[in-house]
Write a structure and sequence with these properties.
Oligomer: single chain
Structural class: mainly alpha
Number of strands: 0
Distance between the termini: 87 Å
Length: about 220
Amino acid sequence: MNVAQDMSVFSLISGATLPVQAVMVLLLFASLVSWWYIFLKVISLSRAATEAEAFEHAFWSGGDLNKLYDSVIAGRRSTQGMAAIFEAGFKEYAKLKRQGGMEVGDIMESARRAMRAAYNREMDDLDSHLPFLASVGSVSPYIGLFGTVWGIMNSFRGLANVAQATLAHVAPGISEALIATAMGLFAAIPAVIAYNRFAAKVDRLAVRYDSFIEEFSNILQRKV
């Protein structure tokens, strides 16, 4: 049998033991799902940053807040991020202001609670899929290591039935074991890099949202 053919990657994977193959399939699935989530997060975080920039420009342009609120309501289906926080706060403020008879502190506290609730919803949406990427990045190397240990154990166990051990007997088992390690790293490294990058972007957006809540609260307090 051709040695080069036996040592090819596909031959090693197809000839691996069932537990090692299961590890490889699991790691491949985790890698594909993480890449899909990475693709989704690139789009969603880029859109969130762009929309925050556009809304801040419209908000600080000095226009009427009522007109800005009406424009946000008109695009309700796509309202998210800073616009959603503004909508929640201004809606609560306007409702309580129309009712009358309430203290300034009570109106501001209610508006702030409404904005905080919207803020929490937006942050929960921004944080989606990040725990999965963190799990893949931290667990995949260990899953690959399990496949490595199993493959090496199986390789050395097979030597017990061989009168004279040679490199040809050991190499396939060790090679399939190392492929499991490589697949674990292949799944983990992009997930870790993506998680760190996305977490930093989410933190920056959180700071922008939090700053907007404070600044908008000050503006509303002056209007009461």
